[in-house]
Fold this protein.
Amino acid sequence: MRRFRGFGSLITLVVVAAVALAYTLTAGNKPLLGLDLQGGVSVVLKPKQEVDNSTIDQAISIIRQRIDAIGVAEPEITRQGNNILIQIPGVKDKDRALDLVGQTAEMQFRPVLANIPVDPTATTTTTSSPPSTEGDPTASTTTTVASTTTTAALVGGLPAGVCQTGLDAAQINKEGTATLPQCKAGNLVASYSVGPTALTGSALDTARANLGDRGWVVAPVFKGGNEGIGAFNAIAAQCFAKSPTCPTGQLAIVLDGRVLSAPVIQQASFEADRIEISGDFAERDAKDLATALKYGALPVEFEQQQAQIVSATLGRDALHAGLVAGLVGLIAVTIYMVAFYRVLGMLAILKLGIEGALLWALISWLGTNNGLALTLAGITGIIVSIGVSLDSNVVYYEHLKEDILKGRSIRSATDHSFVSAFSTIVKADVASLIGAALLWWLTVGPVRGFAFYLALSTALDLLTSWAYMRPVVRLATRSRLVHSSALLGLPPEKVAEVRARRSREVEEVSG
Amino acid sequence: MSWLGRLNRGETQIDFLKWWRRSLILSAALVVISVLSLFVRGLDLGIDFEGGVSYEVAAPGVSTEEARTALETVGEGSAKIQIVGTDTLRVQGPESTPEQTIEVRRTLAQLADTDPSNVSVSSVGASWGGDITRSAIRALVFFFIAILIYLTIRLELRMAIAAIVAVVHDVLISVGVYSVFQFEVTPATVIAFLTILGYSIYDTIVVDDKIKENQGLVGLSGQMTYAQMTSLSMNQVLLRSINTTVTSMIPVISLLVVGAEIMGAVTLEEFAVALTVGLGVGAYSSIFVAAPVLVFLKERQPKFRAIRERLQSQGVSIDRAAVPATTSGESAPVDGTTASAPRTATGVIPPRPRKKTRRR
């Protein structure tokens, strides 16, 4: 059964390709079109100052909240080093989107005028007594109000979806009173009526989350002087005294219009580095609050490195032109290959078909599940890879012809030349893969998309060269399809002539 | 049989030794021109590298003069205004405030009789292009190192060096073309150039693999210098090189002609021009740069120098492509069309004995 060696891999490949294509079509997976093909907004933000990882992450989550507020389907926010790449495909109000993501988030400390229960029956307020930290008996503490709540339809003038949509600057009303939400995992857990901003995050120096005797606490450290701890003590005194400006005794910590925590102030005056916020903190919550406070101390100011607004029309035109150009190129290349290699040329085009099916399935799957978008650079990469795939066939077929002219039968040449040809193909493809991998790791933006698709199609070429080209050419040369070298573009009488001449010469040389 | 037929059978007798002398001079001249042009004229860097704002809108029938008149009212009269593709109006100006950007978009939308949302805007800070360039150059350096190591392992050091020389040559000349003709360099151009690296290497590997296969001939028969053997190998893989280049070029040219020129997709044009230039240069350099550089390196190895000296002392011509012993003396026609083709250089190679152990 030598004739069918490698037949298993052929069937497997064809079945896999067919199943993948069928799955893609039935599951309705479609490639996710990149911004440059469907229109939208893309921004690269670069922090103006040196920042650490957690601060950038905090900034990203703030940006994400804001984009969600516009109600966009699939925003993509990625970090590239310290830069943040934001891609918002298909957004309607592009100017507003651009404006929103670039704004710097501010932290505000505002006295709480009233607690507005979200659901009157579910709201409980627990106030724990000040814990004394071991080895640090002078530590002063404030205590949080921990509320366990469920979401309600409309509370204190806040719409139910406020945690998704957020509030605008007028609603946040920095210098006046406002009603602000406290959110957890996208749900409204409490809302507060708050007074004018008493101090901003710039009064903070840093913050830490510590594990104390009574669980996790957050320790903010204020800057010295009137702008720092002085300003904090001024409002703390009012809250401790429950004066009309702070009747509840609570001070809300607000970031980007959302209340993070509203601890009850337990003393009239604090030392800058002896403050603790305690409550029913899980480790995660305490650390999140500390990170937010740190961010508040030094909010990241961004510089727009690059912003792109792509109109949907131009994007569609580019996609259309790319597809038509690819199709025309494919037809032209088919004519060339068939003219040159006859039946084998046809087989090479079928190889493109298999690769195309697998590529379409992969791109659709990645687009649907991983949000990997197909950009114009990617389409170019794929069109270029038509050449890469056919190169492998050319290398093999030329080797085949050479072997036949050297005196081998078509059948024996088929097996013999595949070994050397495949070795060349592997060398060349691996070189391409190395290039693509380096591009992927070392570059940014559109170059990465291009590198990804080039690598993907090169890998597919390696696979199909082995699992498709070898068995299918073997089958063809062993069947009646390619019974004569004429079907390879070599007239039999020429082959005979060349062989005869060469054997004569060999005799002369050796004789 | 025609020249095409012999090409089809790998029996051409192009004297590459002769051509290499010319091609190396040509390449050296082109590299010098490219480098000089880079210093004198520089590159026409797009806003992605210099910072600024670029607007694009499909505006059939709007002339650049009309656009300039309209833009003067919003203080962008000095912007660079072009019609790109078939009917896309492109305006490039310096960095501006968001308010100004919105103004310009509205003006352009009015001009093109469309909605402002159909105007594409790309604004770039000045440092962005620097970041792109730096990362691309870093990728380039790592690429050279990785390929050098890889080819040294898979082929040999000298072939790796020759391949890298050819690639550097490709990059210099491609960038040179952009400098001489002052084509605009965009991120798409950078991507295209990086692709070409991979391509150029692909072609060179195909050629080198054949040379390596033939390498034994030099020591075996002692009838050829390394240079002659390489020239012979080139003739054998010529069709392979031509066909791999043609099959790669067809889709890219389709991208340029159909996608960019006929359908007017601007971004495609940026890709396609660079790819076409680079593919052409890459195909040329595999045959006319990588191979002679390899020969130059190899002929310095004692083993191959000895063969050359021995052949020289025997009075055998080593200045042109190898001709079989039986026909030495008569010059082999380079493009003869006689049906009874003279015994060819390929003829001296005995058919390879079948391998005893069959490989799967």
In short: Confidence is low (pLDDT under 50) at residues 120-153 of chain A. The longest strand of chain A covers residues 107-116. Chain A touches chain B through 93 residues (CB under 8 Å). The CA atoms of residues 438 and 500 of chain A lie 50 Å apart.
